[in-house]
Amino acid sequence: MHHRLTGSLRELTSAVLDRLVDLVPVYGTLPDEQLRNDIRRVVEQAIRSCATVLRTGELPDDAQLQVLRQSAAKRAEEGVPVESVIRAYHVGAQECLERMAPHAGPDDLDAVQEAGLLVLRFLEQMTATVVAGYFTERQAAASEEQSARQAVLTALLDGDDVRTRSAHWGFDLPPCYLVLGLSVGPHPDERTEGVSPLIAVKRKRRRLRVELERHVGAPVLAALGAEGGIVLVPRRVPAGLLTEEDWSWLAGVVSHMSRVAGVEIVAGATAASPEDVAAAAGLVHEIRAVAIASGRGPGVHRLSDVLLEYQLMRPGPARDALADLVGPLADRPELLGTLRAFLQCGLSRQRTAELLRIHPNTVDYRLRRAADATGLDATSGSDVIRVRAALSAHDARCALTGLTPPPGAPAEEVPAGP
């Protein structure tokens, strides 16, 4: 068998190349020069190695497999899928065995079995060698690409000359980025007894990254920790040409990330050119903080969504004066919670009662108590705006001082009679 392989090496190599083009589609897309030179050389080396195994019964050493390892690294660099590379070697082995089979007679059964086992061992070794060479190159490329991404992200956040530096790193900047400041809630596994919180956090971060990359389909710049971070999503149009469809798409991406990772995500968002990313990053973190402080809940929030609350986050005498209007309710969380719910429900006492799971008469009672304490009547059209602004200012001051405003109201002990 080894004499027949080496004796028909040129003819057999051409047959393997033809079969590769027919059965492994990606090889049909390679330049003809590459097939006739680089790929042909690798096929010849593989056939020679196989003949040597059949002659000696010994598998090749690492030095003899270097050509195959280097070839796998080149295919990785070219973007040829690893499954296609591995299949190519099996296709070559199949072609060789099929050409040898007609020469075997009834008395060659033992030799055929021995040769089959040797070829299987040789394929096992080649597969391991090819996978190692392929993924060593992929890991090196991924590390280099990740380093370039992080360098560009740092330059963008620092406000450096990103155009010049990104060109140096071979990184194309888009017309604009959707800038996201994320607050990521804990996954249940992080608090499950017996589960490593470190592993749970790593799994959460990986799922967030994978889902983000899957939906965006372009290089995403991100710095994510256990509780959130910053994300830059590239877009192909300038910031001024973005539409509501772009923002709806982004909201969908964040929603998918939240669902797949099993966590709640609150995101502040804006759009910025690469030169304006540094300022935008500070803004989205403020928007996120305002959204959380004002009870906006999970999702994507832009400045236009929290204009009033954002403005009231600014320290000053006006904000403090507004917050003081509801100061008498600071130790009455059920009254503050009812005011919030009443405004959230469009001033409907029935919907407020359903939301808080209390009787409508209890809602009326609490609103009267709040009006008596503050002088602001939430049921009066003239006071509604002041009540809303006072609650926003109160929440803003709580956020700055590290306090958490009550999200709702507990059950009231007051009877629900008429």
UniProtKB/TrEMBL annotation:
The protein's superkingdom reads Bacteria
Bilayer-crossing residues are none
What range(s) does the PucR C-terminal helix-turn-helix domain occupy? 335-392
InterPro entries reported in the protein's UniProt record: CdaR-like_regulators, PucR_C-HTH_dom, PucR_C-HTH_sf, RsbRD_N_dom
> In what residue span(s) does the RsbT co-antagonist protein RsbRD N-terminal domain sit?
11-149
What start-end ranges are recorded for coiled-coil regions in this protein? none
Pfam families assigned:
HTH_30, RsbRD_N
Write the protein's name. Answer: Helix-turn-helix domain-containing protein
Organism of derivation? Streptomyces genisteinicus
| Organism ancestry | Bacteria, Bacillati, Actinomycetota, Actinomycetes, Kitasatosporales
